[in-house]
Amino acid sequence: xxxxxxxxxxxxxxxxxPELRVFDLIVKTNYGTTYNSYLLRGEKVALIDAVKxxxxxxxxxxxxxxLPLSQIxxxxxNHNEPDHSGAIVKLLQANPGIKLVCAKPAVPFLRNxxxxxxxxxxxxxxxxxxxxxxxxxxxxxxxxxxWPDTMMGYxxxxxxxxxxxxxxxxxxxxxxxxxxxxxxxxxHEAWYYYDCIMRPFAPFSRKAAQAIAAMDIATVAPSHxxxxxxxxxxxxxxxxxxxEPKHRSDRKLIAILYASAYGNTAIMARAICDALDQTKCxxxxxxxxxxxxxxxxxxxxxxxxxxxGTPTFAGDVVKPIWDTAHLLTSVAATGKKAAVFGSFAWGGxxxxxxxxxxxxxxxxxxxxxxxxxxxxxxxxxxxxxRFGNDFSKFVAE
Length: 397
Ligand code: FEO
What we know:
Layout: E1 4-7, E2 10-12, E3 15-17, E4 22-23, E5 27-28, E6 33-35, E7 38-41, E8 45-48, H1 56-64, E9 74-77, H2 82-85, H3 88-94, E10 99-103, H4 107-114, E11 121-124, E12 129-131, E13 136-141, E14 151-155, E15 160-164, H5 184-198, H6 202-213, E16 219-222, H7 234-242, E17 252-258, H8 264-277, E18 281-287, H9 293-302, E19 305-309, E20 312-313, E21 316-317, H10 319-326, E22 337-344, H11 350-360, E23 364-365, E24 370-373, H12 378-396
Parallel strand pairs: 8-9, 9-10, 10-11, 15-16, 17-18, 17-19, 19-22, 22-23, 22-24
Antiparallel strand pairs: 1-2, 2-7, 3-6, 4-5, 7-8, 12-13, 13-14, 14-15, 20-21
Residues 79, 81, 83-84, 146, 165, 223-224 line the site of MU-OXO-diiron.
């Protein structure tokens, strides 16, 4: 028996992938993963999510322990990433009568998954309900948790939250699919999952977790990992903790992230910092070569304004600063204010190169950056102080 009852007429019918060691090319999955699907059997039958392509045999076998595929009325697509939508076409081939339901923003994504212009797709919004006859599914809009298409479902009869990728973990159990209290390994994997998948959209996860925390929930049934009915609010509360900014101030926080081979960019950084300290901002100087990625990500996430200080080396940004800037893709940084400064000998192109990259990531960049040739002289230091002042105004806008 591979289907597992969560409640009367509600079943886990997912697939297990214990050998997976890397997810989405970058996420380590030391304990494999599961692609969770759920079957709700009322007078009508709904399947929540399909599984990754290649795992449909497990899905179909589990469903058929409960009922024939031909009896499924609805496929609820909480999210279109291929680990949950890969088997949809094969499911529709097995039962062409299935009605597709997803969040309104998910409709074009789902259209591109099935590549069938003729098939109807019902787009729903938060608060809409699907009456299955004896079982209800209420939809929650949870955009950017972690795709714009993402929604969750709530079954009020059994107080089950089908949380999609939220509150999930990449973990493939060898025994029970149910969470056990005190499981430190799962807690770590849930944090790692949040850190890799949800953290770039932390404000959206926080808003969703705040709303969900107030709900009456007996079971959280995510799309990966274990079903939690022993401590259903555990990871919801953890999301509230993990989405808290790590650095706080009553003043505007400015992270001055710099690298300096011979001390010249460091001299500029200190002059800019001194100027910012005279304003309503709270500047922090961070030598990126002395900080680890976790510390740098906390600063990138918490800061209202980010200043990057890079020498130009071989016509480019130096690697420690490139590595730091690249961390922006792993935190919520869209719309943050930023600018670039640095020393140079005969080129100075690093400033424009990094400015372009920051703009491509949708940060708001104050230009032009400030530069100094070799050892900053009095005039160049004055430029740095003016740059700090200007940046304080830019952040305050
Ligand atoms: Fe588990 Fe975002 O897919």
